[in-house]
Amino acid sequence: MSADHRRQLLLGSLIALGSAALFGTLGPISRYAYAAGLTPLAFTMWRALIGGLALGLFVAWRARRGGTIVDLRRIPRREQAMLATAAVASMVLNLAIFSAFDRISVALALLGFYTYPALIALATTVFQHESLGRGKVLALALASTGMVLVLVGQLDVAGAQLDALGVALALLAASAQVVNVLVSRRGYRSVPTAEATTTILLSGGLAYFVLALLVGQPASAAGPFAVPAALPLILTAGILAAAVPSLGFLTAIRWIGGVRTGILMLFEPVVGVTLAALLLGEALLPLQVAGGALVLAAGVLLQRIPEPAAAHEVPLPEPEAAADSAATAWPPAAAGAVVTRLRGPGTESAEDARLY
What we know:
- With 356 residues, the protein is an all-alpha fold.
- It has helices at residues 3-23, 26-36, 40-64, 77-103, 106-113, 116-127, 133-152, 164-186, 193-214, 218-222, 231-256, 258-264, 267-279, 286-303, 319-326, 348-355.
């Protein structure tokens, strides 16, 4: 494994852990938002809209520095279909887990949802014919065990509400996440990461807006404008718990693959439970601390597992060369190759070459 590949695995893993940590803030933020007067549907809708708008501004800022935005109408139809599939999967995921939270305890719903890393590992082996190896299997087992210990500590067994539909909705959310991860690895490689994430978030926000009108919750459309006290919370959720971690999540999937990313994302409930203890006064049990340590141990183990460079990796061209070759024609001659014209190191063209 080359030094560049090791560096990419390390950076991708850190991005996945950081994204998991930011997603983990959603529990306390949503609690405060609900207490301020927002409904769960309004919170979900405005989080997606603000996150998508924030990323859209970032994409526009990058374009003003010399880049061009990919025209989604002119990418290959298969990639259009894959991007649409990812957007629908993301919508289903959020709606299903939101409904599950309404029917069963949050901890029980998360136990069902976080089966998705194991499902991704299974689907990757069956459909993409990728061998997991003993190391990844052990890391998945460690992280999954740690996640269970973290969440079991929050279960109220005596007062537990076991609802079959609620459990089914949590598993539906997990299945939607599996679809999202599988199609996002290589399904729409012509679309830069930031632009793809913007599309998915804005699509979800608009879908929730329509849903709010259909189910008779027009007040949800007003959201934080009707509840000014919730505006700082929804801005925080949209930027720090939607835009940034969603961008990081897709980046990690493309850099290190769905299995590694899924395992590392099990750090999310660890952060959520810790923040709930610090901010909401919920008890943090030794069992949960041990579970968090297992999740972190799995992350360390993943970094010690050698892995050949993924098939989608190609040598990095110079950013200027990549940009100039992309500017010669539209669409580009190479099938599925849409490269944004940007200037300087660390720009989208270099990123896309590294990812694809």
